[in-house]
Write a structure and sequence with these properties.
Layout (H helix, E strand, L loop, with lengths): L2 H7 L3 H4 E3 L1 H4 L3 H6 L9 E7 L1 H7 L11 H5 L1 H26 L8 E3 L2 E7 L6 H8 L2 H6 E3 L1 H9 L5 H4 L17 H24 L1
Antiparallel strand pairs: 1-5, 2-4, 3-4
Length: about 210
């Protein structure tokens, strides 16, 4: 039994499933079949920098040789703030572009530092409608669970990590290092501990 079959048996496949676009495109018949259930397109903003733009954003900051982990960790809050501002600005630009355009923008918007493009997100489908018209077989075969929604159901006690552990497979192992302040590390560990406690508490109530 695969994870999708297990989730269907416990009544959670429809709430967490998404269509695996790469997998469904390998079967032209089924791909064409579900286009009637395709949801309206959504987009994201992609900046394209020219030579002047790349020069503008070039990071010339060099970490001093005498710096240690503690000094480097102090940069992380600023990096998080800049990332948040950047993503917030892209969201505002997207809303402005969509508001001003009668049709989805296909040509980049030119700027002295490059251009802005609207790029379509991966297609989304009406999962409930697919199930109503075609049954569960297509969702089991070509669906994939949304990891954030799975985590939601683990936290509220409807699933446990132990339930889905047998279905996990390791495809690649990547080792990343993250430098964080002691305060951030403490917050992270506290958050993880709280998630475990909430999940365990909700399973007892359920």
């Amino acid at each position: 039994m695969g994870l999708n079959e297990y989730l269907f048996d416990v009544g959670l496949l429809l709430p967490v499933a998404e269509i695996d676009n790469k997998a469904i495109k390998s079967n032209e018949l089924y791909y064409d079949m579900i286009q009637d259930f395709r949801l309206p397109e959504t987009f994201y903003v992609k900046p394209n920098f020219n030579k002047a733009g790349k020069k503008l954003i070039k990071n010339e900051f060099e970490i001093p040789e005498h710096w240690g982990i503690n000094e480097a960790a102090q940069l992380k809050p600023r990096a998080k703030e800049l990332t948040h501002q950047y993503e917030s600005l892209k969201s505002k630009l997207l809303r402005l572009i969509e508001k001003d355009q009668q049709k989805p923008l296909r040509k980049p918007i030119p700027h002295k530092f490059g251009s802005l493009s609207l790029v379509a997100n991966q297609p989304k489908y009406d999962i409930s409608a697919i199930y109503d018209y075609l049954g569960e077989w297509l969702l089991i075969e070509y669906g994939k669970p949304n990891s954030k929604l799975l985590e939601h159901y683990i936290l509220n006690g409807m699933l446990s990590e132990r339930d889905i552990e047998p279905f996990k497979t390791v495809k690649d192992i990547r080792l990343d290092f993250s430098v964080m302040t002691l305060e951030d590390e403490e917050k992270f560990l506290t958050m993880m501990d709280m998630k475990k406690q909430i999940s365990a508490s909700n399973r007892v109530v359920a």
